[in-house]
Every structure is written in structure tokens, then in C-alpha cells.
Specification:
alpha/beta, FAD/NAD(P)-binding domain, 2 domains, 25% helix, globular, binds flavin-adenine dinucleotide, binds iron/sulfur cluster
């Protein structure tokens, strides 16, 4: 087995160099049919790692991605425009029940193109819960640490250095120190980050090691073929074996409209790895004749890390446009059920949390130079939902409801963030909760944040970490895949995205998904 070489430093123009083996929309001239040892569906963190590992082991791999590749010229700094191009449903996908926006990317590299590159290993306690609750024997830190280590080396994962933290991140550190709360620089998969704070709209300096500049080029160098702008619509099977996938070439940014669709394709393969993402894979299975669903668990158990944020206004300039998008965190409250982080996003997106209209709204925009934003993500593993297929569509319907005990954790996290802001010297905070004071100027006033006055329907939540819709379980009657990621019902169908997590991981999920995908691809490679 070759060792991971790490991404090519000259990867900026890799797409040009790799043109022969990366197909883009303009290159499709008609229907086509191909064969491979393995077809991997989805080029996000999990699919890209799986494709690389299998290709590096000498297998003929085709990686299929519905979205287009993005070059630096394609990135839009305007947050709204960026979302319409890089996110499904223009970034406006929502859950029903408890209404919450949830973003899933549609791009070569999947979520890694637009995420903050945070890479955190879950603590032992998370894996202990998975082991006891889901009959899993080998999914623990001892077994996964070599995979975490290999990915960390490959992607250059390291703590964010002080030079690129910027004041809004360092204020968080100072606030934690003042209150005796542990905190640390966030470990991220970046090389040469300049602290431009624009991870959500794409890293223009290509410092972020998103999959399109790291694992996908490595997979190409190992011999994989990559087809972009192809939407897989069906997984084909005979008895207990899958035989291939088929679908349609789709024009970038116009999928969903009939005019956006063009040629049909089919790929036959000896094994299939579905890594289309937690909300897409179950729909694909349902639309393929309810495949892999003897357990009835496909599309069930949907979980999120619901997140919320508070903006704090300081008396002096913070210059929040400078600094790593998310540079500091605190894991001190993980056992209580939440993780704290610093956060930045394009101001039009942040302003969704600003109160008021007209002049009042503009007055908050005017305070952006003195602003910092800190967030909490909550381990809401009691708040469950499900994914359903829409009629003749691969877009999901997401039902989800926040559990009262998780609302209590959200309230508590709000109060802790408020305490941190006032400890750091903030002059006021915008808690972003409707129905209570929209602006708070003292800790005394902020005590209401941890009370019943904060109604769940009045919280401005976001849930970009999504899990469990094809969960891993040792018992075939209670889960979709086994501990190796192989579907219990099918001999050669694997699932590798964050849908296989048995529960939310309590920390940012990308690294865990990649480690599981790496383990799984190495096992599959030996079986082929
Ligand atoms: C704004 C944002 C910030 C985030 N920040 C972080 C962070 O800093 N750290 C972290 O750990 N996590 C973060 N996350 C979450 C993280 O990005 C996801 O958990 C991760 O990308 C999931 O990886 P995946 O491979 O399972 O799926 P995805 O990344 O969703 O990749 C799935 C891919 O499959 C493709 N696909 C779907 N359906 C089809 C089909 N039918 N045919 C062909 N292709 C298809 C999609 O287009 C997509 O590219 C963030 C998410 C968002 C949205
Ligand atoms: S903060 Fe800026 S330079 Fe650093 S990884 Fe994010 S987008 Fe790239």
C-alpha cells in the first residue's frame, strides 16, 4: 500500500493539467457508458478520500460528482450569490417541523469547498456511546487514530497560528481565559492561510485544502477518472449485488430544470461507494427501488448539530474582516452537550441575525467594524427527523424536530456566550433571539437567555452538520451499513458519507467522515 504523498504544492492549476481525466460539462458530446472496478458517487470529503485510497491501491476508479469544479475565478465574494452557485436549493434548504436552514454543497469537493476546514477528532466518550448503543466493536479512537493521523499529514492539519487569528478570534481566547474556561486554536486543514475570513465563499488563495485541491488531484494522479456535472439517478442491482449506476449529465447551476439536463450515462462497476451526502444518499436508495432498506432505517434517524450565534459589539475596532474564518474553540462544555467556536461570514449572511429594519438595521451594519461573532453547536442526539424523497426528484424533504432537552442546552450555550462577550469587554450583544430584548448591554440582562422566555421557535438556528440517515449498526435489523460501511443487504454496495454516523459526533464531522471512509476504502480495496 503506498503511503499518502500529500497534495501537490503546484495544485493551483491542477484542473488544467488533469483535463484528460476530469470531464466537465462542455466535454460531454452524447450518451456514454463506462466500466470501472469501483464507482464512487460524490466528491465531498468522504467520497474523495475513498476514491483516492482505492485508486492508490491500484483499482480502476471513477468518481462521479453532480456539481462543477470551481476555480478561483469562479468564486463570488457576495455571500448570497456564492450560495446560489455552490449550495443546493440556493442555500435555502430548510427542515420542516422545527424550521432550520441546512446547507449542502453541490460542487467538486462537496462541503469542503465552502466549509471552514475545521478538523477535530471526537473524544473517547463519543465512540463509547457509539460502541454500546450500536453494537460497534472497532469504531474507536485506537482503531481510527492511524486514519486521523494519515489524513492530518496529507492535509497539513494544524492549530491556527496567532498571526492569522485576527482580533475577533483572540478576543474569544481572552474571554475564556478571563472566565477560566479552556480554549484552543482550532486545528484546520489549510496550508498558508492568510486569514482572509472568506472560507464560506471559497478560498481565493487556495490555502484551504478542500478536496478539489487535495484528495481529488491525488486520486487523479493515482489513475482515477473524475466526471463532474453528472447526476446519478439510479443504483442498479441484481439480487444481493449492485451492478452499476446511471443518470444524466446536468448543466452547472441549472439542475432541476428540464433544460438543464442533457445526455444519459451508465457506469458498470464491481463495487459502488455512495458518498452523495447524508441527505442525498437515502433519496438515491429510495429512488432505486428502496434499495438496502430491509431494516427500514434508510432515511430515518436524521440528526444535526443545530447551531446558534451571538454578535458582540466592542468599544474599540475589532476589524473582523481579518482573521481565520473560525480560528478559536472551546471544548470545555462538550459533556454538557455543546461546543463553542468563533465565526465569520459575509455580512449579508450575518445580518440575518441583526434585529430591525431600515435605519435600525443599517445602524447594526455600521457597527460591523467593532463586531465579533461567536457560536455554539449542540450535540442534539435526542432531536430526530427523517429524509423523504420528493416525487420524481432527488431533492429531499427533511422533517426534524428539536427535543425540549436540546432546547435547554441551546439556552445554556447562549448564556455562556453572553458571559464570554461581557468578560471580554463587549459593550453590547445582539443575541439573535426573537421575543426578548434584541440588544443587551449587561450580563444581568442576558440572564434571560437561559430561561423559558427563549422559545424554541424564536431561535435563529442553522444546521450544516448532518448525520445518521443510513446509520452504521452491528445489528442488520437496526442499521443500514455494517462497521465496514457495507450495506447489510448487499454484498458490494458501500456508503461512506456522514449518513453512516450512528449519532452526531459532538464535534465538527468532516474529519471523522474522512477517517471512516479511509478505513472502509482500504478494506474494500482488499476485497476486490
Ligand atoms: C457552510 C458549511 C461549513 C462547514 N464547516 C465545517 C467545518 O469547518 N468542519 C467540519 O468538520 N464540517 C464542516 N461542515 C460540514 C461538512 O462540510 C460536511 O459534514 C461534509 O462536507 C460532509 O461530507 P460528505 O462527503 O459526507 O458529503 P458532502 O460534502 O455533502 O459531499 C457529497 C457530494 O455528493 C454530490 N452528490 C449528491 N448527490 C449526487 C448525485 N445524485 N450524483 C452525483 N453527485 C451527487 C454532492 O454534490 C456533493 O459534492 C460545514 C458545512 C457547511 C455547509
Ligand atoms: S481564512 Fe481565508 S486564506 Fe484562510 S483558509 Fe479561509 S479563505 Fe483561505
Amino acid at each position: 500500500m503506498p503511503s499518502d504523498p500529500g497534495p501537490d504544492a503546484a495544485s493551483e492549476d491542477w484542473l488544467v493539467a488533469a483535463r484528460e481525466r476530469v470531464r466537465v460539462f462542455a466535454q460531454y458530446e452524447g450518451a456514454f457508458r463506462e466500466e470501472a472496478d469501483v464507482v464512487v458517487v460524490g466528491s465531498g470529503p468522504c467520497g474523495a478520500v475513498a476514491a483516492y485510497e482505492l485508486a492508490a491501491a491500484g483499482h480502476d476508479v471513477i468518481l462521479l460528482e453532480e456539481g462543477p469544479p470551481f476555480t478561483v475565478r469562479d468564486f463570488e465574494l457576495d455571500g448570497n450569490l456564492s450560495m446560489t452557485r455552490t449550495m443546493r436549493e440556493g442555500g435555502l434548504r430548510m427542515t420542516r417541523g422545527t424550521v432550520m436552514p441546512t446547507m449542502q454543497a453541490i460542487a467538486l469537493g462537496g462541503g469542503s469547498l465552502v466549509n471552514s476546514a475545521i478538523c477535530v477528532r471526537p473524544p473517547d466518550a463519543v465512540f463509547d456511546r457509539w460502541a454500546t448503543g450500536f453494537d460497534l466493536e472497532r469504531t474507536n479512537r485506537a482503531e481510527l487514530d492511524p486514519h486521523f493521523d494519515a489524513i492530518a499529514t496529507f492535509l497539513g492539519i494544524a492549530p491556527t497560528p496567532d498571526e492569522v487569528q485576527g482580533r475577533r478570534n483572540l478576543l474569544f481566547r481572552d474571554a475564556c481565559n478571563a472566565l477560566g474556561v479552556s480554549s484552543e486554536p482550532i486545528e484546520r486543514s489549510v496550508r498558508g492561510c492568510r486569514g482572509s475570513g472568506e472560507c464560506f465563499t471559497g478560498c481565493r488563495s487556495r490555502a484551504k485544502q478542500s478536496m478539489d485541491v487535495s484528495y481529488v488531484p491525488a486520486a487523479l494522479r493515482a489513475g482515477a477518472r473524475v466526471f463532474t456535472s453528472v447526476q446519478v439517478q439510479q443504483v442498479h442491482s441484481i439480487g444481493r449485488r449492485v451492478t452499476g449506476v446511471s443518470g444524466q449529465v446536468v448543466a452547472p447551476f441549472s439542475r432541476g430544470s428540464r433544460r438543464g439536463r442533457s445526455h444519459h450515462f451508465r457506469i458498470d462497476a464491481r463495487a459502488i461507494v455512495l458518498a452523495a451526502g447524508c441527505t442525498a444518499t437515502p433519496v438515491l436508495l429510495k429512488q432505486s427501488g428502496d434499495l438496502a432498506n430491509a431494516s427500514g432505517q434508510v432515511g430515518e434517524n436524521l440528526q444535526f448539530h443545530p447551531g446558534l450565534a451571538i454578535a458582540g459589539i466592542f468599544p474599540e475596532p475589532v476589524d473582523p474582516q481579518f482573521g481565520a474564518t473560525q480560528g478559536y474553540q472551546s471544548l470545555a462544555f462538550l459533556e454538557e452537550g455543546f461546543k463553542l467556536e468563533t465565526l465569520w461570514a459575509p455580512p449579508p449572511l450575518l445580518s440575518m441575525r441583526f434585529p430591525g429594519f431600515g435605519e435600525e438595521l443599517l445602524s447594526h451594519f455600521a457597527e460591523i467594524p467593532q463586531m465579533a461573532v461567536w457560536d455554539a453547536i449542540v450535540s442534539a442526539n435526542r432531536s430526530l427527523g427523517r429524509v423523504r424523497a420528493r416525487w420524481r426528484s432527488l431533492d429531499p424533504v427533511l422533517h426534524w424536530a428539536i427535543h425540549p432537552e436540546d432546547v435547554a442546552i441551546l439556552r445554556r450555550s447562549l448564556k455562556v456566550i453572553a458571559e464570554l462577550f461581557f468578560a471580554a469587554g463587549a459593550r453590547k450583544i445582539l443575541p439573535g433571539v426573537q421575543g426578548i430584548a434584541e440588544v443587551m448591554t449587561s450580563l444581568d440582562q442576558a440572564r434571560i437567555l437561559d430561561s423559558d422566555a427563549v422559545r424554541p421557535e424564536n431561535l435563529v438556528l442553522g444546521g450544516n452538520h448532518v448525520f445518521c440517515t443510513t446509520r452504521m449498526h452491528g445489528d442488520p435489523t437496526r442499521g443500514v451499513v455494517d462497521e465496514d460501511g457495507r450495506c447489510h443487504d448487499l454484498e458490494n454496495l458501500y456508503i461512506a458519507d456522514t449518513g453512516i454516523f450512528p449519532q452526531c459526533p459532538s464535534v465538527n464531522p468532516m474529519l471523522t467522515g474522512m477517517a471512516l471512509a479511509r478505513r472502509q476504502a482500504r478494506l474494500l480495496g482488499q476485497r476486490l
